Amino acid sequence: MPKDKRRFPLGIVVGLSTLVVATGGATAFFTWQNTHNSQSTPVAVKSPQANAPTSVPSAPAASQNPIQVAATEKTAQVYWLKDSATDLELAPVAVKVKSADRDEARLTAAFNTLFSAAPSQDLSSGVPKGTTLRSLKVKSDSIYVDLSKAFTSGGGSSSMTGRLAQVLYTATSLNPNAKVFLSVEGKPLTVLGGEGLIVDQPLTRSQFEQETGTKQE
Predict the structure, then answer these.
(1) DSSP state of 203
(2) Fewer CB near the terminus (10 Å): N or C of the chain?
(3) Which of 120, 143, 119, 147 shows the shortest CA–CA distance to 133?
(4) Cis peptide preceding 188, ω within 30 of 0
C-alpha cells in the first residue's frame, strides 16, 4: 500500500520560490556590488610631489671691499718740469687708464706719456727724445724701471736732476713710499751724465727731496 505524500499548496510553493529567488538575487546583487566597488573604485594614493618651486629673491649686490675700492681709485700720474726761479718744481698730470688695469700697466702707460710731448707750454721735460721704457716690474713696495740708453745722453747737471726726478716721481705715483731701482739697458744706473751725477740706489722720494730740494705742486 503506497505511503501518503504530503502536498503543499501551489501558492505556498510559488511564494517560497519567489522569496528564495528574491533573497538569492538580493544577496547576489549585494555581493556583486561590494566586489565591484572594491575592484573598480581605485584607492587614491598621493604620490610624493616635489616641492613647488618658489621664487628666490635675488641676492643684494655685494658691497665693495674698501681696500678694493681704494685700489681701483689709484691714478697714475706723469710728472713734468715747471719753470721755477730757484728750485726744481714738478707738476703732476693724471693719466687715464682702465680701472681694472694692474699697477704695472698703469705705470707703463704713464711712462709712455712721459716720453711724449709735454701737455702744455708751461710744462717741459728733461727726458731726452728717443728714450723708451724697456721694462717695468712692481714687486711689493719696490719698482724696477729699465730705460733705453738715450736716457743718459746730453744735458747738464740741472737737466740730469730734472729727468731723474721725473722718472722717480712718475714711478712712485701709485705708491709715494715705494723704492725705485733704475737701470739702463739692463744695467743698474750709478752715474748719470758727463758731469757724473751720482745715483744712489734705490731711489726714494724722501731722500731725493733732501738732497735736491725738489718741490711738487
Answers:
(1) B
(2) N
(3) 147
(4) no
For residue 100, what pLDDT is reported?
A: 64
Number of domains comprising the chain: 1
The Cα 138–Cα 103 span in angstroms is: 7
> Containing domain of residue 99, as a range?
69-216
With vertex at residue 166, the alpha carbon angle to CA 202 and CA 71, rounded to the nearest 5 degrees, is: 75
Which pLDDT tens digit goes with each residue over 112-137? Answer: 999 998 988 899 999 999 999 999 99
Spell out a b/e string for 112-140, using b for 16 or more CB atoms within 10 Å of the CB, else e. ebbbeebeeeebbbbbbeebebeebebee
* Residue 140 belongs to some domain of the structure: yes
Q: Is residue 193 part of a domain?
A: yes
pLDDT of residue 154: 84
C-alpha angle 178-119-121 in degrees, rounded to nearest 5: 120
Q: Report if residue 4 sits inside a domain.
A: no
d(CA 94, CA 75): 7
Dist. CA 170–CA 206, nearest whole Å: 14
The reply to whether 40 falls in a domain is: no
Q: Which pLDDT belongs to residue 209?
A: 92
- Beta carbons of 83 and 55 less than 8 angstroms apart: no
Closest by Cα among 195, 205, 184, 132 to 159: 195
Q: List the alpha helices (DSSP H) in 48-156.
A: 66-73, 103-114
Cβ pair 79, 90 in contact under 8 A: yes
Amino acid at 154: G
